Sequence to fold (269 residues):
Amino acid sequence: MKKKMPVMLTFDVDGESLWASRELDHLPVTRSLGTYGILEGLPRIMKTLEKNDVPATFFVPGIIAERYPEQIMSIDRAGHEICNHSYSHTYPDKLPSAAAEKEELTKTNEILERLTGKRPRGYRSPAWEFSENTLGILLDIGFDYSSNMMHTDRIGYLQVFDRKTDIVELPIHWVLDDAAFWLYTVRIPGKAIQPVSAVQEFWIAEFDALYEEFMEEDDSDLCFILTCHPQVIGRPARMKVLDNLIKHIKTFENIEFTTCWQTAQKYKK
Ligand SMILES: [Zn+2]
Fold:
């Protein structure tokens, strides 16, 4: 029987920490864009996922879990996966030491486990970038998967330069990231806001092309991973794009909406 292509909807619940990592959170209005993600964006996402009856994976910085425990617990209660997105959302290469970076990850695992009773299995870097210490830290802590690399469209094992690991890698890409189209503030020069119809068309075209390749290959490891941010996709009209994309994907036979951890487990078997 033909296997099904995993479809992973992932959400980076950055809140205000997205702006802290850009050293802009001393500006109350810029910072409030992050708050919007938690107060407005997240409930809209939860509703859209529930309506379509699909699971998702949420990457949460520890500081946001401490600030908004109710909201983070509601993600868990709805049956979605919650994983590690650092503590403060500081870019790993800006942290002063390997110990500081490790502390960011261990602290967040503790906070998330306290809230949900579950050990976070995966890690996504706040900058989609590693420091020279990141890989060693992920191995030390014992993460099962990473969702950071852009070298492939396939599920595989994480490799950094020549160093191979048995951590499953679930690849991402800027073209399937809402921030690449819509993250905007006057403080970030050179970014324009794209029309919702353009982004919808873009993501559907990406899915269709990938699915076609998946169907042509025997035993394909191709996968579709969308990355969104509550403060970015969480606007009313943009939420329709997510809703329409899910509905579009659901019309294909050989797909399964799944969480990152489920996908990683399946791949390792
Ligand atoms: Zn982030």
Notes: The longest strand covers residues 5-12. The CA atoms of residues 157 and 168 lie 4 Å apart. DSSP finds eleven helices and nine strands in the chain. Residues 12, 14, 18, 85, 89, 126 surround zinc ion (CB under 6 Å).
